[in-house]
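Supplementary material to the annual report.
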Amino acid sequence: MSANKEIKKTEARSSLAKMFGGSAFQSLLIPTLAVFIGLVIGGLVIAATDAGVAEAFKNFSSDPGAAFKSIWTAIATAYGALFYGSLGSPREIIAGFKALQATGDNDAFLKAIYPLTESLVTATPYIFAGLAVAIGFRCGLFNIGAEGQFFMGALGAAYVGYSLKGLPWFVHLPLAILGGGLAGAIWGAVPGYLKAKFGAHEVVNTIMMNWIAFRLSDWLLTGPMMTAGFRPVTPNIQKTAELPRFFEDPLRFNWGFVLALVVAWLVYWFLFKTTLGFEIRSVGANPDGSKYAGMSVVRNFVLVMVLSGALAGLAGSAQVLGVDHWVGQGFSAGYGFDAIALALLGKSHPLGVVLSAILFGILRSGATRMQSLAGIPIDIISIIQGLVIIFVAAPAIIRWLFRIRISTGDETVLTRGWGK
Amino acid sequence: MAVQSTSQHTAQRNRLTVGGILIVFGLLIFLLFTPGTEAGQVAKFGMNLKSSAALPIPDITLPVQASIYALSILVVFLGAFQMARGIRSAGALFGIVAFAFVAAFLIWATKGKSLSLIGMLSSSLVRATPIALAALCGVISERAAVVNIGIEGIMLISAQASVVAATMSGSMTLGLIVGVLVGALVAAFHAFLVIRFKVDQIVSGVAINIFATGATSFLSSKYLQHQGDLLNNSGTYPIIQIPLLSKIPVLGPILFENNLVVYLMLLIVIVMHIVLYYTPWGLRTRAVGEHPKAADTLGINVFFVRYVNVIVGGMIAGLGGVYFTLGSVGRFDEVMTAGKGFIGLAAMIFGNWNPIGAFTSSLIFGFADSLQIKMQILSVPIPSSILAMAPYIVTMIVLTGVVGRAIPPAADGVAYEKQ
Amino acid sequence: MPTVLELRDISKSFPGVLANDHVNIDLQEGEIHCLLGENGAGKTTLMNILYGLYKPDSGEINVRGKKAEIHGPNDAIARGIGMVHQHFMLVPVMTVTENVMLGVEEKRNGVFLDRAKVAKRIREISQLYGLEVDPDAYIKDLPVGTQQRVEIIKVLYRQADILILDEPTAVLTPQEVEGLFKVLRSLVEKGKSLIFITHKLKEVMALANRITVLRNGRTVGTVIPGDVNPEKLASMMVGRDVNLVVPKKKANPTESVLEVKDIYVEDERGQMTVRGVSFDVKMGEVLGIAGVQGNGQTQLVYALTGLLPLQSGEIRIVGETLKRGATPRHILERGVAHIPEDRQRHGLILTFPIHDNMMLCTYYQPPFARGIGLQEKVIMDNAETLTKQYDVRTPSIYVPASSLSGGNQQKVIVAREFSRPIKLLIASQPTRGLDVGSIEYIHSRIIEKRDEGVGALVVSSELDEILALSDRIAVMYRGQIVDIVPAAQASKEYIGLLMAGIRPEDALKSAPSVTGEAERVF
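Predicted assembly:
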């Protein structure tokens, strides 16, 4: 009878399990709680390193209330700045919109939505890079090299963007985008090939490729691809290679975001609705079984690393062509590791990746304001991300912390081996 | 009979391929390194460090062209011999060719100048130190089947912690102890995640790396950059010359004229070798890494063995972190480990998961690292950033296993389910 | 004789399964007590409880009259209980000495391992009980029978006097089994007490002083061999009269569908494990390959299905000679069905839902795919139909394959493979670890395919399965086929001798190759 109950429960979750590989409730609950705990611990770090808090705790014995209040103040100031800096204020947005309707003057409105659009601008490369890591996970490959692929993609897109001249935009822009994708694909293909041919572990190799990319870019930016003058950066790309922006300066929100959403949908379709995606997921879940079923495991390794590299390269394209219009040293800082965090947070599902990317866009773009307003280094976001990864990867910790009793599908596997 | 003929066939094909590759390398040596050399040019290699002049041995002076011709011919000859007769040991062949190639490169780079060979070898050992420590951390944890890819992050955090502790207290020793303990702490956290919560070992390691980068950079920009003198200026360990031993020609200055961290690393190599192969703890560790269930059924606490080994590994990686600050530059810079932790993992694999092998292969990476620095000094006409790729490229070549495939502990990376 | 061990009212449940339900058993000094039951009857669970690997939900254990709390192997070892596991608990890359001393190391100077001392002790034990083994050999170099001796030495080294042997004969040849029995009898003579776990009736009758039968986690009863016959034991074991003879008509073989000529195959580690094998399978017949596990059968099947490359020789499938490096897909597309030996490693993607597993080999073909687009409706309909048709017990087609029982997992594979148009069936250990119901079902399906004109190659280490299914029987030993005989008249003794590596001409001296009536009692 207990077996029956178990089966019924399994059945109930099955349709949603198809999407996320866990119950829908759980697949939202765990990441949400993971982000929440990440923010809480990040807040404690902020408070612990806050001068005001330290000051208040000196008088802890005489005024403990003030000490605790100071913690609250520190965290509230920091996160207040973070979210104001990333989302803006709804009141200002509404007021701006009313002004726009009434007078046709969009100044106030644009000013009000600026933080929000900046968050989406930041989220754009995250979507691509997150998809890159996610598609790797689906095939059982851990691409830690999204950072190098991103950098090479940016350089590729920039090169096509500034070196080709006199092309119409509808030729130049796609070429530049693909240039980035291609450069990333090549950077991903190398570890993919080494894995397929020699079984060399992709984790170490993608990291080595990152360092090679950094050194190569050092050389390119101080030599062959350097702009006239003394700054180690590329020339600006041609106007015809720029991803069009939706609003005038300083709003940088552009078609790259739409492109990212389209690509996310394509990846979803590819992974779940095509035979190629079926193979990739099958190889990721059980390489031996896939070989038995007639699939070529190594071919899928190479294919996925090429696709993964291409997606990370597209992240570079989107960033160069839509936002910066040139590439300088340290361009890729941190994107690769961020991508891992959000692929894990999004459970390697394109929809999850898009949502996580927007969340990270909000955090990153708000952190800049937090840094200038509250003097908190932007690296706090990396700390939070590290924590989020741990909590997402170890739902057991979350369950343990919150005393949640949910059984995951794989916990019932114990029954295997008993007939009946 | 049929089998023999097939395998003979493959063997012959292999022999021809390898021979062909050798000949190509021989020609490559000739083509790459002879242009621009002049007859009568010499390359001078210093064989003494200034400090150890007690028993000076003569420096080596080589005629550039003749030496490169000789090396090139040697490799081509080996290739031809391989094609005709076949040489058993592929490893030895590879070693000779690599040596000839590097030697030719060095001679070419040093043409008309002088290079302190001993200086370079000694700096290879120094530069191999953090790599070896990372590799040893990998060996001790992976022998118990826990993959620790967070070594890079552990080293980063330890580097920062040790320099801050040393600067604030004014005691280098305290800095070292703090660095090692912090390493143990982070490793313990990793062990806790992967053993208690069965988090994917790679994911946990990556999370530690991200966290470490974030946390050290956060503290760095919040405090270290503003109060460098108070927090981030520890000074470095002095070079200790071991009496008598450091006077041995060639070996003396390389091995016995180093700072504390290098000596500790050498000591750990030896101790770890003895522990792994000659003590009960080592036997249990290897059993837990190969067949944890077997160990469990004999009453060995698999989890305990894993915890201890990962934490000890963390202490070793912590010492690696100490190398970067107290053992090298005396201050902390953001992301100063520059991938050494990962290179250490490659050294561990190439060294076949044993301490002496891991140490030896670390030397290769240390050599590649020191080579690129010396080449910049010799102002070789290759961009320095391209030369700086050398250690990373060597790592990737090593991982292909072309040079010899290593077999990891059977249960490596697999969480143990106690029933 | 005093009772050395008593298990009282032991119960243990796992999610969805009651593995032990108030089980009682006692062991007297100097006896061999056989614990008999089908796969899944709860024997191994019970012994794992005794050895402290599982915690019982209720019940108590008494050792020599005293209540014993056994929380782990250490407690068991301390009470003189030793266990020889079904899957050997030996570290392959270590020596015999290292394996034996693991956990109870002898030390020199208080720090270093004293290998010599342990090796000496091993030699003493070997001599005392007739367990010949070289203490310095590496486990990975030893044959299975010797590895088992090391397991027994390990237990004796820890001075156990209660020994549990879990299915010890599963990996041995009939002749090695005889050797093991001799050792066991000598152990008992020297005062040890043994629990011998098995599902093989013949062994029970040959060895036991007493027999306790388990069924569905319950004790059916304890009997003395003299009081029962194999048929009685069998019905105690399965709860009804069983008939392992598969009802089948006479085979009607036609042309060859698989021809294998002098093939050589290396395993993943580079060992030449198939050495010059030739045979053919005709349409409408079952060729059984008998042999003790590890004699190259696995690699033979892998080579036939493209999972391992041929070193030399020739394979013809449905009239086509396979090219060097023919892929599994190429072979599947010739009309070959493959029921793999390891269903969880090869046969299924466990995390995938059943509907995806039902089309695992044909997902790229119409009707499941159009271009590169998967046709979801077709896939679902196919899965619904097949689960019904092949009686797969599952709550729905959307649950992951991992949630099914072993028998139902195997049915998913059979359904998938049999629903394709096939000419050749390659089935490797098709019923390993399954309950009797599933075994009968799968056997009858294989015969059904044979009668439809499919050629079938069945590889099994269960001689009874081979005898029940085959029309011809090939015996494999050390990578070679030593003889092929018509099954209808094959004698079990003769095949057993061949499996043990006795050459056919010598085997004929001690057993006729054919008998009038095949022996079909388990």
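The beta strands of chain B are 42-46, 60-63, 114-116, 240-241, 257-258.
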